[in-house]
Write a structure and sequence with these properties.
286 residues; alpha/beta; D-Maltodextrin-Binding Protein, domain 2; seven-stranded mixed sheet; two-stranded parallel sheet; 9 strands; 41% helix; 21% strand
């Protein structure tokens, strides 16, 4: 290499090093920033409020970002969705349902994402005529209930009808027409009362049943712990929501919250957490 070529090569190397240093400095000082502090008004399903989960999540988010998370509505799904429809709320989270899909279809919300799950249990009469008490395989238990021609109460509360459909599909099970009781009430208290009156098996939420928020004489826990009994919660942001609400929605699916879900309330009623994480790229539960 000639002297002139060597000098040109050294000059090019110096320029490259200077450019790399500049990029490095800029990358350190110009890391992506969260939106400026804002108040995010939220509508949250009642169970997350009652268990303390939402308070734990909101406190972590406020501490991390400086945003304020303000609870604007809570309660049963229909109340929370109705409040969101009236406007003035930035973010909503309830169970996956037609009501949540319709918020998006009607242009009121966007970007539905699953971020947590809870689960149902199979309960039934203390006499347990199908002999399923203590089972953890919901498909096998349902098959035994059908084979025993024991009364089975089918209802839509908490999406139990959808869970039942999936269990039947997996097990290729056909309900006994005479033993199947259809119940149109979307209220778990009334569901349990009807099951008790009929001496029937049915499905209700695990946490309200174990905490005795749901209770009916003669109805006891039969089947719990099968992941196929779980149902997802969705988070959606209002179509008019600002960047802070979108940031909170994204936070719910990040590692910190997913790790919290995997342990929150574990051991309070049984060996399971109160809620369950979902599989997202940032967090894969064991």
């Amino acid at each position: 290499m000639t002297g002139r070529a060597r000098r040109l090569a050294l000059a090019a190397l110096a320029l490259a090093l200077a450019a790399a240093a500049a990029v490095g400095c800029r990358g350190a000082s110009e890391a992506p920033e969260r939106p400026a502090p804002a108040t995010i008004r939220v509508a949250v399903i009642g169970g997350m409020i009652e268990t303390g989960l939402w308070a734990a999540v909101a406190e972590r988010y406020e501490r991390l970002t400086g945003h304020k998370v303000e609870l604007a509505a809570s309660g049963p799904k229909h109340q929370v969705v109705a409040a969101f429809r009236r406007g003035g709320i930035d973010l909503i989270t309830v169970h996956a349902s037609d009501a949540m899909v319709n918020l998006v279809a009607d242009g009121l919300a966007r970007d539905p994402q699953p971020w947590a799950r809870n689960d149902l249990v199979i309960v039934g009469p203390a006499a347990d005529p199908a002999g399923v008490r203590g089972a953890r395989d919901a498909v096998a238990a349902l098959g035994k209930i059908i084979a025993a021609k024991a009364p089975l109460l089918v209802h839509a509360s908490l999406g139990a009808d959808g869970v039942l459909h999936d269990l039947r599909e997996e097990g290729r099970l056909v309900l006994d027409r005479e033993a199947t009781l259809l119940f149109s009430e979307d209220n778990q208290h009334k569901v349990l009362e009807r099951a008790a009156a009929a001496g029937a098996y049915t499905m209700v939420g695990r946490i309200p049943f174990l905490s005795k928020k749901l209770f009916a004489p003669g109805i006891e826990l039969m089947v719990a712990g099968d992941p196929r009994l779980r149902r997802p919660y969705l988070v959606e942001v209002a179509a008019t929501a600002g960047p802070a609400a979108r940031d909170l929605a994204a936070f719910l699916r990040q590692r910190e919250v997913q790790a919290l879900l995997a342990t929150f309330g574990k051991g309070k009623y049984d060996d399971q957490p109160l809620f369950f994480p979902v599989v997202v790229p940032e967090f894969v539960p064991e």
